[in-house]
Amino acid sequence: MQFLRQKPIPHLVFAAFAIAALLQWVSTPVALISGFLITQIFGNPFDNKLQAKYVKLLLQIAVVGLGFGMNLHNVLEVGKDGLGLTIFSISLTLVAGIIIGKALGLDRKITHLVSSGTSICGGSAIAAVAPVIKANPNQISVALGVVFLLNSIALIIFPPIGGWLNLTQDQFGLWSAIAIHDTSSVVGAAMEYGERALEVATTVKLSRALWIIPVSFLSMWMFKGGDSKAKVPRFIILFIVAILINTFLAIPSFIGDSIDFLSKSILVLTIFLVGAGIDVKMIRDAGSKPISLGVSLWLIISLSSLGIILFLT
């Protein structure tokens, strides 16, 4: 193993799979698993912090690009349909988190971070809420470990479950946007399921991400102090601008198709990098109680939202 780490093999293998992901030669689940396995066998040839920075940037670029393939009227219709379910799922998850966290005897701040990450948008929500409640680095890393583990599992299992249940494109898009934590896993799973599912999932997920702001203020009230600064992520604004441009300006179809293909290529590459950045030690160090909380909340939000979607549609 040490021999491999000292040779250029890790860089070559990593680059080869990254190119395959960028060219969409592999699906999003395969990209995730490949990234994880490569770094477990050869080690990660790149700095984790730098890689995480690029993952965030690439995901934002991909999401903005997807906006050029969406129509404002369709987006408003989808957003309206998903608003009630979004409010219900966030409220249910936060309340259930408090109850289950107390039952497990879990640290209050870890409980709130995991609950916030599960209810809104994974790592982004945790990063936004952490300074508000004055969470320490260990509490943040534990919450991130739990959420990233469940995100990775969701990306792999949700598309086949949706197929097994014969969910329509709209149903799956809405379900994945509500039940999967992180934006990268949501759009990755939806992209695997279909074009319409991707459009619905992206729209609902990004509207759900805006709830970071009220939840941050709620967190400040619950924990009495901290940094109360909460802003709308810039890429969400650019995503909306892209939708407006595509709706009201006559963009040639070949340009729109090219942007759409490039965005999806970047997305698959991002998923590969997410897999490569999975920190097994961080997940192991989280312990059983935070993972039990995360799994419990995930099951609650997944099953309840699925039941409502099937009942209403």
TrEMBL record:
Source taxon at top rank: Bacteria
Topology versus the membrane: Multi-pass membrane protein
GO CC terms of this entry: plasma membrane
InterPro entries: UPF0324_pro
UniProt key word Nucleus: no
Keyword Membrane found: yes
Signal peptide feature range: none
Transmembrane parts of this sequence: 12-37, 57-76, 83-104, 110-133, 140-161, 235-255, 261-280, 292-312
Keywords: Cell membrane, Membrane, Transmembrane, Transmembrane helix
Compartment annotation: Cell membrane
Main location: membrane
Family as reported in the entry's similarity comment: Belongs to the UPF0324 family.
Protein name (database record): Sulfate exporter family transporter
Organism from which the protein derives: Profundicola chukchiensis
